[in-house]
Amino acid sequence: MAEPDPAARAAELRTLLHHHAHRYYVLDAPEIPDAEYDRLLTELQALEAAFPELLTPDSPTQRVVGQVLPGFAPVRHAVPMLSIRTETDTTPAGAYKFDASVRKAAQLTGDVPPVAYNAELKFDGLAINLRYVQGVLAQAATRGDGETGEDVTQNIRTINQIPLRLQGAAPEVLEVRGEVYMRRDDFERLNERQRETGQKTYINPRNTAAGAVRQLDPAITAKRPLSFFAYGLGEIRGWDQPSTHSATLDALAKLGIPVCADRAVVLGADGLIDFHAAMGAKRDALPFDIDGVVYKVNDVALQERLGFLTHQPRWAVAHKYPAQEQVTRLNAIDIQVGRTGKLTPVAKLEPVFVGGTTVSNATLHNVFELRRKGVRVGDTVIVRRAGDVIPEVVGRVGSGARAPYVPNFRMPPACPVCGSTVLRERGGIDHRCSGGLFCAAQRKQALLHFAGRRAMDIEGLGDKLVDQLGDGGLIRTLPELYTLATDERRARLSALERMADKSAARLLAGLEKSKTTTLARFLYALGIRHVGETTAKDLARHFGNIHRLMAASVEQLLEVNDVGPVVAQSIRTFFEQPHNVEVVEQLRAAGITWPEHDGDAPDKGPQPLAGKTLVLTGTLPTLTRDEAKALVEAAGGKVAGSVSKKTSYVVAGDEAGSKLDKARELGVTVLDETGLRGLLDGGS
Ligand code: D41
User: 91-320 adopts what CATH topology?
Assistant: First the structure.
């Protein structure tokens, strides 16, 4: 192929960049990942450097990013908000380079001790300046071009984590700089809600947070769950800044400002590298996205000695991690069948390295979302993988050329696994296979669910074994699991080539042990739609034995605590299927037992928490989550997963997150572990 004409390529890049900048900054609807935009911009900058005659006044490279939008009043920053140099070399070399440049600039050569750095996380959100005057939040502004930002005070005031008044002594002026971001769980919940109501889903927490802060209507911002972490200072008057950055962050935390606990003072390049590696390993487990770590010279006096380049301090650098979004080709769309029969369109991708692993499958959620995103086989798409969230296709790249006609994706009328009819509830979003346990896909998932820790807790029955048992034709129904122990099957089980004798023995022991269980676990294990652990416990408590439950009418089911029409109908439908009744009988015949009673109000001991709903969040000093839950339930209370007006108490431990904020927002009583123990002992 001939070298492309530089002038033509520059013009093309300018057009592309203008288009994407508008999508990003004005419409809040980017079509390409940020990294892709940066690549295009870098390419144009390189072209303009090589051929200065190609530089035009309207080139996107000449624009200061983050222009003030009409609608927000401009705010001139008292102290400019600098940017931070980014080290894109994600290997340890990036840290060595930074340390070497600091030592050189400070003339620390030869036999001097290593430099002390504060290493912190690089939150992926929107930079904000909070101005506190006499301890009161007076103004909040975006960074803008660093000199002038936008006044977003009203919006920032809706963020519960940001104190409207500082705790303790109030300095005359204290500007706190930090990042507004959205937690991953909050983002997932928001998107789940959008999906359920058939609305447009958001691309990633960062864009959603940035978009929310720049909403012209604060009421909309208030509905978005935003969080904040401080990382620096702006103007200060009448406040003695501590002599190190780490102590400054501690001091901000004491004033009631959220500061992230994942930070450390480390020595020299080796310390930086260790921190980079440790946080890289922890990245997926963090409740929020980070795109790197930040190293800062800890000593403020040394920072001042090092000073600034034009817009960036010489004493700080951002050291990146692999991007969590990438572009790749959509090769095909498969259908996956889940435990409840839900059909999920799954993107088969050209393998791509994203968020630290190679991804070749990603969820497209459902057919409506797929259509809204307009993705088709052959498109170049954006994949996102963050934390332990399943990788997903968030959209397609560009609006440009594509095959003139590609038939739209359709859900198949028959289950691709078992051939049963595929149904969709009227007005519903999900397509489902109607095959139930006749469907091999649902069977495998059902087996895994049945064996799960919170269900029958069968040790030794994991993913691989279920696949082997299923594919080997050894197991077709749940009860057949237990006949594995009979002589003939036992022989076949050991004969399974890939299965070592040891794992066969472990499975058989696990099966035996699982036979003594509780009615609640058994009900949950059956995998009845809408019957989660809590409902299973309510049902077990209410009916006491399985026969009364199986015979219960919808009306009788509705008498159970928290069982509504959808759940009641689902239970009724389940037990109306003769094969489900048969499964229950066969499992009992296989020897599964549990204590039974005659329904509600058996001797349960004192029930000080009867009728109360509690939410647990964070880590308690002595109780695990499961232990706390068991104690609450034994006292007649319920444990819910999210805070609402109906919540009686929130029990908060260390690192409690958005649930605690929500409790405060709704005025729900918050207790610590001691408070919980008081309640359990009958106090109120
Ligand atoms: O977490 C971050 N995104 C972060 C951003 C951080 N942890 N530290 C930062 N430090 C600075 C300096 C060194 C200039 C005080 C920053 C940023 N700046 C920054 N973020 C966006 C523009 C500048």
Answer: D-amino Acid Aminotransferase; Chain A, domain 1 (3.30.470)
Domain borders along the chain are 6-62, 91-320, 330-429, 457-514, 519-589, 613-680
Q: Is 361 helix (H, G, I), strand (E, B) or coil?
A: strand
What's the gap in Å between 311 CA and the centre of ligand 1?
12
Residue nearest to atom 11 of ligand 1 (CA): 84
CA distances from 602 to 207, 524, 540, 543, 609 (A): 53, 21, 11, 10, 16
Q: What is the CATH number of domain 6-62?
A: 1.10.287.610
The 8 Å CB, 24+ separation contacts for 506-513 are 506/459, 506/460, 507/458, 507/459, 507/460, 507/461, 507/465, 508/484, 509/459, 509/460, 510/458, 510/459, 510/460, 510/461, 511/458, 511/461, 511/481, 511/482, 511/484, 511/485, 512/485, 513/458, 513/459
Query: What superfamily does domain 330-429 belong to in CATH?
Result: Nucleic acid-binding proteins (2.40.50.140)
Does the Cβ of 123 fall within 6 Å of ligand 1? Answer: yes
Choosing among 1.10.150.20, 3.40.630.30, 3.40.605.10, 3.40.50.300, the CATH entry for 457-514 is: 1.10.150.20
Q: Do the first three CATH levels of 91-320 and 330-429 match, i.e. the same topology?
A: no
Q: Residue 556: which pLDDT band, with cuts at 50, 70 and 90?
A: very high
Given a contact cutoff of 8 angstroms between Cβ atoms, the answer to whether 235 and 170 are in contact is no
Q: Is 122 noted as a catalytic residue in this protein? A: yes
Residue nearest to atom 2 of ligand 1 (CA): 122
Q: What is d(CA 202, CA 212) in angstroms, rounded to the nearest whole number?
A: 11
Which ligand 1 atom is the nearest neighbour of the CA of 143? 22
| 231 Cβ below 6 A of ligand 1 | yes
Query: Which residue among 122, 373, 537, 629 is the active-site one?
Result: 122
Fold of 613-680: Rossmann fold (3.40.50)
Average pLDDT of every residue of the chain: 88
Q: Does any ligand 1 atom lie closer than 6 A to the CB of residue 365?
A: no
Mean pLDDT of 354-373: 91
Measuring from atom 22 of ligand 1, which residue has the nearest CA? 83
* CATH number assigned to the domain covering 519-589: 1.10.150.20
Kindly give the distance from the C-alpha atom of residue 87 to the centroid of ligand 1, in angstroms, as a whole number: 13
pTM score, whole prediction: 0.70
pLDDT of residue 168: 87
Q: Atom of ligand 1 at shortest distance to CA of 177?
A: 15
Q: What is the pLDDT of residues 159-207, one digit of tens each?
A: 888 988 898 878 999 999 999 999 999 999 999 989 888 888 998 999 9
Q: Is 315 touching ligand 1 by the criterion CB < 6 Å?
A: no
Closest CA to 103 of 88, 95, 86: 95
Is the shortest distance between the CB of 232 and ligand 1 below 6 Å? yes
Q: Does the Cβ of 294 fall within 6 Å of ligand 1?
A: yes
Q: Which of 98, 123, 177, 228 to mutate to test the pocket of ligand 1 (most atoms within 8 A of CB)?
A: 177
Q: Does residue 306 have its Cβ closer than 6 Å to ligand 1?
A: no
